[in-house]
Amino acid sequence: LAAAATAAATAATAASTLPFVDTPPTAVDGFNGPLYGVDDDGTRGAAVWWSIDDDAIEFVLATNAKGWFSLALNSHQPGMPGADVHVCYRDEGGALGGGSSDGNGAVVGVRDMYAARFDTPSADVNQDLLLLDSGTTDGTTFCHYKRQRRTCELDADYQIDDVAVTISVLLAWSDGDAFTYHGGGSRRTQHAALGAPSSPPPPPPPDAVTITITAPIAVVPTNEAGSYGCSYHDLAAGVGGDTTKRHVVHYKLHRGSSSSAGVLHHVNLNACKQAIPGISNGAAAPCETIMAACNELLLNDGYAKDGTTLPADTGIPILGTSSARYVVISRHFYNPSKKAGVTDTGTSYDITVTTTLRSSELATIAMANTALTVPPRTYDHVVQSHCSPECTERLGADGVLVTSVFFHMHGHGRRARVRVVRGGTELPPLAEVDPFDVSQVAVATNTRIEPGDRLILECEYSNDLDIALKWGDGLNDEMCVAQMTVFGSPNMASCADLPDGIDTSGIAACNPCIGVDTTAFPACRACDGSLPRVACARKDAEVGATDGAPIDETRDVAFTEYDRDAALAARLSECGSDNEATVPVPAVAGACAAGAVVVGSVDVPQLGSYHKIAVSWKSDCDAQSVTFTISAAAHARDGWLGVGLHDGGTAAQRIDAPLTRMKAADIVQLTYSGTLKDRVGVEAYSTPRDKSAAHATAGTAEFVDGRVRMSFTRSFDGAADGGVPLAADRFVHMIVAARLENDDVDAKHSAAVLLPTRLSLFGGVAESTRAATAEEAA
After folding, report:
1. CA–CA separation, 281 vs 383, rounded Å?
2. In the beta sheet, which residues pair with residue 101?
3. Mean pLDDT (10-residue bins), the chain, 778 residues
């Protein structure tokens, strides 16, 4: 829910550095906004206004940059992966098409795109953005466009079902015409609910002070891939020992030197139930012992340049009689390549607090199952973690409003979701990530959980190893965690599943029940350690209280499951006749200027038993070569992956893929061990022939975290012996193939697919469609 902070200096000078913020280039009466961003020099930036009704949303996007500019909507995280991207462009030559003239010889238009990862976005198959107006005035370029709140591209487009959900709003801009990286200083992230008027982050209150806590220097281990470094801190020390209750209103995480070394995975700030004896303020502490008493998540964000600012009516409670005073900075290091000599120094939090308490408080509730086991050579294995009705009764009489869910798994995780069962009927998922990606772990929502609900966290894994996966920090360990950010006053901070029960031998009250038949003496049932339980200790309970892990009495009670297929079919049925009439959107040629390296990527539809296949490329315009990287979550250690290319023609003159897909395809096969075959397809069911002279060379080949990742480099000039030449103004058709059984490159693939659209390896965009207006449909 937290809004990304805009620097006070930027806000103060916005009127002078971005005059179009105060004087929009087109009418925006009745619109929400603006949200805006300014580059580090204070000279370039972008702004967005929007207006929404029951059916559609309109955007006005403006910039003083000379090239393209974009808006991205992301309900998962404040970055590119998983974002619905709207790119406006100003093309001096008019080659991009689909836009309108700005009166100065240029065409201004808009493209509907999707970013699967930190790469160039790809154009949606359906172009759902309808341009209403665009132009350039006094150095400001704008585009005014419209789209339906709900579209038929459920993955590529953000579905605006609930306008109260707070999502990340990303603005980017570039002085270049090509769709290449905008640069770190030319993008900004804010947060907004599309149904509410936007406002800049509130300034800190007059009595605000900043507490800085710094983790001590830590040496990153080399004997294990994953490890933690913990340190213990007293927040009261930052305010002179005063323990008056305060609200956190802003916080900023400063990542230490291990981040530059590429081994800092994430940092959390956890709250402790009480002071930890024997550890001084600011000192390093053994994670394996301290985290048992400090397992409540307090802060898990703050990575943005300006940190995280909470809304003006909201605070995170600290100090006082029942809020956090003692905290632990937990640094998760991930060092699979075992880099030696890496230390972490400078990791710290700046926490701005006020004694002027706000009307709403944020809290977190964590679900987990530390008893997880994924058997060896097991795929699509589901681990559940229950939060029982007995525990959710501790959410308070009105329950809680969940605003985001943060998932945590490791490299073998495939997908995760939190299910909700109420009154014997399962509701739609509270949150879901499918497929799981470490860059998409937080899901925005606006869903109320009521007392008596059952929550079920499901984590799905594929284990290609010869050993079982257990709970832990290492490369071959796994986790299953969902951390919910909630509005309300829950009387618990965690809901940890204990499916194997607990050891009750140390509980004095249970001594009279030793050896007693609980069916004859029901009062002793609470001491039966073999029964499944859920740990959900009350926040106000004394340390050592015995009701912290009530028995899960109704775990095996049947309920009516949520019918996902029926819900999806109903959703797709809404794509009626209004969306059946489409008009074409022309292709855009790429470019390859001197010194440029053009990057791109594409996700491949599920291919046999493979998951999350991705092909990416880097076209080096000086070297006249392109490096492909293909990766997949594979289920075996032996096999091969292949990429085949056909010439797709130019933007204006399309060449269709041949009906016999393999025939004459320019094919590169790579085995998991790195062996490369550069070949040409012969017939549909024949082994491709080797080229007389290979123009592709093998790069890296690795099998990490259940994923195979390989690369190869080939020249642009591939015309010899049946190869496909590559040029900036041309497109290709791409085939991806895989063999699962073994690495016999002469054996037929297990599965293959021709990607549905042409691809440009030089930043171009393939032709697509958009919904027709009523006039066009007629």
Report:
1. 38
2. 107
3. 28 52 91 85 89 92 90 84 87 47 65 80 83 89 92 87 86 76 73 72 87 96 83 96 95 88 82 91 89 78 75 88 90 82 94 92 89 88 95 92 89 90 96 75 88 96 87 80 88 89 81 80 83 85 63 90 86 60 77 84 68 84 95 77 95 91 92 92 84 90 77 88 91 91 87 88 80 65
Owner of token pair 């709900």: 150
Show Cβ contacts of residue 773 under 8 Å, excluding neighbours closer than 6 positions: 130
Say what the pLDDT of residue 465 is: 83
Assign 81 to helix, strand or coil. Answer: coil
Q: What distance in Å separates the CA atoms of residue 29 and residue 144, rounded to the nearest whole number?
A: 13
- How far CA 661 is from CA of 3, 165, 644, 680, 753, in Å, comes to 49, 45, 9, 12, 9
Give, in order, the Cα–Cα distances in Å from 736 to each of 185, 275, 324, 684, 739. Answer: 36, 57, 53, 14, 11
Phi, psi at 4, each rounded to 5°: -65, 135
Q: What is the pLDDT of residues 221-248, one digit of tens each?
A: 888 767 889 999 999 999 999 999 999 9
**What is the pLDDT, as a whole number, of residue 424?**
95
Of 62, 86, 60, which Cα lies nearest the Cα of 73? 86
The distance from CA 217 to its chain's CA centroid, rounded to whole angstroms, is 30
Tell me which residue has tokens 């350690």. Answer: 529
Contact 646, 730 (CB under 8 A): no
Q: How many CA atoms lie within 13 A of 628 on its CB side?
A: 25
Distance separating alpha carbons of residues 29 and 21, to the nearest angstrom: 13
What residue type is 268 in one-letter code? N
Sheet with 666-671, strands from edge to edge, namely 689-690, 676-680, 666-671, 640-650, 730-739, 751-754
| Beta-sheet strands, E only, within 287-412 | 296-299, 308-309, 314-318, 326-334, 343-344, 348-354, 360-368, 373-374, 378-387, 400-408
What pLDDT does residue 777 have?
67
Question: What's the rounded Cα separation, in Å, for the pair 117 and 112?
Answer: 16
DSSP string over 341-354: S-EE---EEEEEEE
What's the rounded Cα separation, in Å, for the pair 546 and 507?
8
Q: Do 333 and 264 meet the contact criterion of CB atoms below 8 Å apart?
A: yes
Given a contact cutoff of 8 angstroms between Cβ atoms, the answer to whether 158 and 166 are in contact is no
Residue 16: partners with Cβ closer than 8 Å, 6 or more residues away: none
As a whole number of angstroms, the distance between CA 494 and CA 434 comes to: 24
Chain center to CA of 63: 27
7 vs 17, 32, 254, 332, CA distance in Å?
14, 21, 16, 28
- pTM, two decimals, is 0.70
For CA atoms 115, 116, 122, 127, the dihedral sign is negative
- Rounded to 5°, the CA angle 773-774-778 comes to 115
Buried b or exposed e, range 258-281, using 16+ CB within 10 angstroms: bbebebbbbbbbbbbbeebeebee
The secondary structure of residue 394, as a DSSP letter, is: G
Alpha helices in 354-415 (DSSP H): 389-392
What DSSP string describes 475-529? TTEE--EEEEEEES--SBSEEEEETT----TT-GGGGGGTT--TTT-GGGGGG-T
Location of structure tokens 């997949």: 632
Return the closest-CA partner of residue 248 out of 280, 214, 205, 218.
205
Nearest alpha-carbon partner for 204 in 11, 406, 462: 11
- Separation CA 335–CA 342 (nearest Å): 10
Give me the DSSP letters along 289-303: HHTTT--EEEE----
The angle formed by the CA atoms of residues 660, 653 and 97, to the nearest 5 degrees, is: 130
> Apex CA 320: angle with CA 316 and CA 325, to 5°?
70
C-beta of residue 226 within 8 angstroms of C-beta of residue 477: yes
